[in-house]
């Protein structure tokens, strides 16, 4: 900060020399005016530098939190202002994409030497298990951690399920009357549904991968061979399944219930059924990336997601809250009813799927693509 005094000293020294010199008065006057103008420019330049320094200091002092998530854009738009109100002065940045794209971005950043994300929220539990094994996630037990079901969290708090998206069967009621709509996942192998079914790809969607893992465990890979005979389309994520439902390109879909509930007023033609052989409970995970420092702010933000406000935000987006006692999504059946028939997230299933993760993707690719 010695910049301004040094500049002024030089000009003052020049002025003193002028006054002591033997040159004529008009010469002195001219030189004096030139010197004043120079000093004026110096002062203005110095003020500009000061303002820039102050501005930079102010910006660097503003804490910034990056949240990487597969939550839908309208959910992010709803959550962000709530977080900004709850944590004034904090700048929230979101990276929003499909689960596999989010995972790929984090892995690329890790290979580059620094993960930008502070908090992760998406639905590929098996990926989070891998990150836990690599010690990339902070062990933290947020508000209401003890209330979240044991099978839906990492015991040491490396990650915790913040909400439950549910995979169901959906259909376009203009093409398929309710009485004729398929009632089970198993029924989709019937030849009468040939050319009518679509789902997301397990290569692009975390929820699609989980669905494939559970269905392969329940029915074996012959189930997918039969779906291939029925010309199953497996492409993109859940939004792609919805587009094919609406266009009637594929009037039956394996898709998240939240996608269909969002259409209850804008496109009531699209209906859903909870499969009699069990809806698939997805685990929407929240975790804090381990970095240097105390993670105080990240912990407080995580607590918010598991508070009544954060859980209400999940329900508003048509996902079931992970903390018992919070209201179910509007228009959805009671979560207790879903649990009765849903396949179980056992430790054995989690470990087996972790070990065969790549094999599952390869087998699906070989059969369907």
Structural descriptors:
globular, 369 residues, alpha/beta, six-stranded mixed sheet, 14 helices
Account of the protein in words:
By secondary structure, the protein is an alpha/beta fold. It has helices at 3-20, 25-61, 73-86, 99-112, 125-133, 206-219, 221-229, 238-247, 257-261, 296-305, 308-316, 335-341, 347-355, 357-368; strands at 64-69, 91-96, 119-122, 160-164, 166-172, 197-199, 233-234, 252-256, 270-273, 280-281, 284-288, 320-321. It folds into three domains: 3-59; 62-164 and 282-332, D-Maltodextrin-Binding Protein, domain 2 (3-Layer(aba) Sandwich), CATH 3.40.190.10; 166-280 and 361-368, D-Maltodextrin-Binding Protein, domain 2. The chain is built from 14 helices and twelve strands. A six-stranded mixed beta sheet has the order 2-1-3-11-4-12. Strands 5, 6, 7, 8, 9 and 10 form a six-stranded mixed beta sheet that branches. Helix 1 packs antiparallel against helix 2 (25-61) and helix 7 (221-229) packs parallel to helix 14 (357-368). It is globular and about 60 Å long. The model is unreliable at 1-5, 7-12, 27-36, 42-51 and 53-59 (pLDDT under 50).
Strand order of the largest sheet: 2-1-3-11-4-12
Radius of gyration: 30 Å
> Tally of extended strands?
12
CATH class of the largest domain: Alpha Beta
Structural class determined from secondary elements: alpha/beta
Strand content: 5-15%
- Run of helices and strands: HHEHEHEHEEEHHEHEHEEEHHEHHH
The description of the largest β-sheet is:
6 strands, mixed
Please give the CATH architecture of the largest domain: 3-Layer(aba) Sandwich
Q: Considering DSSP H and I runs of 4 or more, what fraction of the residues is helical?
A: 40-55%
CATH topology of the largest domain: D-Maltodextrin-Binding Protein, domain 2
Mean pLDDT: 89
Number of domains: 3
Shape: globular
Number of helices: 14
Give the CATH H-level superfamily of the largest domain: Periplasmic binding protein-like II
């Amino acid at each position: 900060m010695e910049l301004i005094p040094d500049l002024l000293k030089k000009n003052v020294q020049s002025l003193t020399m002028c006054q002591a010199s033997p040159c004529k008065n008009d010469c002195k006057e001219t030189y004096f005016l030139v010197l004043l103008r120079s000093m004026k420019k110096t002062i203005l330049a110095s003020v500009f530098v000061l303002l820039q320094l102050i501005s930079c200091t102010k910006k660097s002092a503003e804490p910034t939190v990056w949240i990487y998530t597969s939550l839908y854009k309208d959910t992010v738009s709803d959550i962000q202002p709530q977080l900004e109100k709850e944590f004034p002065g904090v700048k929230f940045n979101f990276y929003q994409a499909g689960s596999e794209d989010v995972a790929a971005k984090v892995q690329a950043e890790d290979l580059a030497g620094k993960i930008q994300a502070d908090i992760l929220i998406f639905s590929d539990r098996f990926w989070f298990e891998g990150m836990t094994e690599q010690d990339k996630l902070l062990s933290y037990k947020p508000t209401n951690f003890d209330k979240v079901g044991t099978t839906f969290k990492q015991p040491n708090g490396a990650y915790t399920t913040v909400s439950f998206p549910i995979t169901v069967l959906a259909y376009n009621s203009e093409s398929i009357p309710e009485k004729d709509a398929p009632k089970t996942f198993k029924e989709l192998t019937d030849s009468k549904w040939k050319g009518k079914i679509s789902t997301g790809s397990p290569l692009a969607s975390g929820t699609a991968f989980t669905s494939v893992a559970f269905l392969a465990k329940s029915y074996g890979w012959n189930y997918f061979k039969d779906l291939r005979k029925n010309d199953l389309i497996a492409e993109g994520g859940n939004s792609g399944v919805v587009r094919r439902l609406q266009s009637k390109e594929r009037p039956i879909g394996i898709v998240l219930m939240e996608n269909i509930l969002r259409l209850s007023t804008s496109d009531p033609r699209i209906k859903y059924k909870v499969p009699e052989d069990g809806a698939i409970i997805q685990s929407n995970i929240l975790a804090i990336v381990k970095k240097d420092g105390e993670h105080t702010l990240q912990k407080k933000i995580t607590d918010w997601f598991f508070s009544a406000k954060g859980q209400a935000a999940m329900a508003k987006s048509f996902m079931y809250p992970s903390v018992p006692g919070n209201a179910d999504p509007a228009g959805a059946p009671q979560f207790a009813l879903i649990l009765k028939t849903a396949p179980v997230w056992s430790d054995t299933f989690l470990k087996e799927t972790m070990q065969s993760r790549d094999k599952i993707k390869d087998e699906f690719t070989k059969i369907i693509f």
